[in-house]
Design brief:
Oligomer: single chain
CATH topology of the largest domain: Rossmann fold
Shape: globular
Radius of gyration: 19 Å
CATH superfamily of the largest domain: NAD(P)-binding Rossmann-like Domain
Strand content: 15-25%
Number of strands: 13
Largest sheet: 7 strands, parallel
Order of helices and strands: EHEEHEHHEEHEEHEEHEHEHEHH
Structural class: alpha/beta
Helix content: 40-55%
Distance between the termini: 35 Å
CATH class of the largest domain: Alpha Beta
Strand order of the largest sheet: 3-2-1-4-5-7-11
């Protein structure tokens, strides 16, 4: 069975592709740029998610049966170029779903975000919390969720989604406001200084990339009769670590780590507009989700993975 991963050359997509390959699926990556590394058995198709013909052609010609729709512009990119954000995040998602309808795709897995909520009085959100995003990225992800649910109701597409917290892992290249977290670890490993654009007390919900990939696979493999909610919050490392907490954990490995903090007002506004906790009760009950990596385990494994890739 052939699986298409849109945005497959990116941080999540490339990690997901390697894991799916181990399960003997035929993997097709669809992206505007090739992956950093080539793997035997993983095929790359250059294409633009906002181009209807290109999306339709890859699904038809490669006989795709399942889609992981990961292609998206992130928060800082969306704020810098709203027109491009609409083309990629909104039109691109519509293209994927309409092509899925036409070519009888068996299942579409969509990556959403905690950014769909905006500020909430308690800071805690669940799958029923009203969505009032404060940033364009969140607005586009709300559209993705709702149009996916519409295609499920109207056309029977097995659409499933997860609202991820900030994902952390080695090799992130995109420029999102939450990327101070991996950059702190990577700079410390390389022995270079890094100035984070947040305060020491900044805290956002986070998840390690290996938990995120396992989450996507478990949702993908769950029997359809277990999927009731369709789009799920998935929880984070608890308690949510501050930037100071992360630095303290880093310094257990690199005592001389040179990390300073200079809060950027725009970044802080965005980070303070997101929830403080995602209630993942439905994901736990319906398909057995649970997080495995805590802060210590995340930092330990991050350093191990990055060290092995640079040796």
């Amino acid at each position: 069975m052939a699986i298409l991963i849109t945005g497959g050359s990116g941080f999540i997509g490339s990690a997901l592709a390697r894991t799916l390959l181990e399960k003997n699926y035929k993997i097709i990556l669809f992206d505007i740029a090739p992956p950093k590394t080539e793997w035997k058995g993983i095929y790359f198709i250059k294409g633009d998610i906002s181009n209807w013909a290109e999306v339709m052609n890859v699904i038809k010609e490669k006989k795709i049966k399942y889609i992981f729709h990961l292609a998206a512009m992130l928060s800082a990119q969306c704020e810098a170029n709203p027109w491009a954000a609409f083309q990629v995040n909104v039109l691109g998602t519509y293209n994927v779903l309409e092509a899925s309808r036409l070519f009888n795709i068996k299942k579409v897995i969509f990556t959403s975000s905690m950014g769909v909520y905006g500020k909430v009085p308690t800071g805690v959100v669940d799958d029923e919390t009203i969505q009032r995003p404060q940033i364009l990225y969140g607005v586009t992800k709300v559209f993705g969720e709702l149009i996916g649910l519409y295609y499920h109701r109207r056309f029977g597409i097995d659409f499933r989604g997860v609202r991820f917290p900030q994902l952390v892992g080695p090799g992130v290249k995109s420029e999102g406001y939450g990327q101070y977290l991996p950059k702190m670890i990577e700079a410390s490993l390389k022995g270079v200084s890094f100035e984070a654009w947040v305060s020491k007390e900044t805290s956002i919900p986070i998840m390690y990339i290996k938990d995120a990939i396992r989450c996507l696979l478990e949702l993908f493999e769950a029997e359809e009769d277990r999927i009731k909610t369709r789009v799920y919050c998935v929880g984070q490392i608890l308690p949510s670590p501050t930037a100071r907490d992360l630095l303290e954990e880093i310094r257990k490995h690199f005592p001389n780590a040179s990390i300073t903090f200079r809060p950027d007002p725009k970044a802080m506004d965005v980070l303070q507009s997101i929830p403080t906790k995602l209630d993942d009760t439905n994901a736990r009950k319906e398909w057995g989700w649970s997080i495995r990596y805590g802060l210590k385990e995340m930092v330990d494994d991050f350093i191990k993975e990055l060290s092995s890739s640079t040796n």
